Amino acid sequence: MHGPDDAAEQIAALLDGIVRRQRRASREGFGESVTHGQFRVLRTLDRADRALRLSELAAQLGIVPRSATSVVDDLEAAGLVERQPDPHDRRATLVDLTPNGRQILNTLREKRRDVMVSQLSRLTPEEQQVLAHLLQRLAND
């Protein structure tokens, strides 16, 4: 017998597959140079529209500061972010995107969008609107 749990499991598996395919395709050309976690850091810094303290960055990402430090270390080594002293607190460090970090982020976003456009092309415009509406309802919490 198929019940709501079966539908939930099927939907979860389908969404996981779509997200994995999108991540894989959007990284093409970058190899493994930018992980999903690193992409999230770049995106968070871009959305903040200012340099963030490591603690702020960690809080916005929902991770512990030590994890944020590790990701920032790797991104800094790749030249995608830079650290600078906080002018208001000598003990704190600010993190911001470099021009190269912004360029990589924009390219990754474009690739991600292109992959989604390709996937959605199998649906009619009306189906796309219904899907967007349903996903929005699920995303609101």
TrEMBL record:
Q: What GO biological process term is on the record, naming one?
A: response to stress
PROSITE patterns the UniProt entry points to: HTH_MARR_1 (PS01117), HTH_MARR_2 (PS50995)
Record's keyword annotation contains Amino-acid biosynthesis:
no
Q: Name one GO molecular function term.
A: DNA binding
Q: Does the keyword Oxidoreductase apply?
A: no
Residues covered by the HTH marR-type domain: 8-140
InterPro entries named among the record's database cross-references:
HTH_MarR-typ (IPR000835), MarR/SlyA-like (IPR039422), Tscrpt_reg_MarR-type_CS (IPR023187), WH-like_DNA-bd_sf (IPR036388), WH_DNA-bd_sf (IPR036390)
Record's keyword terms, sorted: DNA-binding, Transcription, Transcription regulation
Identify one Pfam family in the record. Answer: MarR
> Which SUPFAM superfamilies would you find in this protein's record?
Winged helix' DNA-binding domain
The protein depicted here goes by the name: DNA-binding MarR family transcriptional regulator
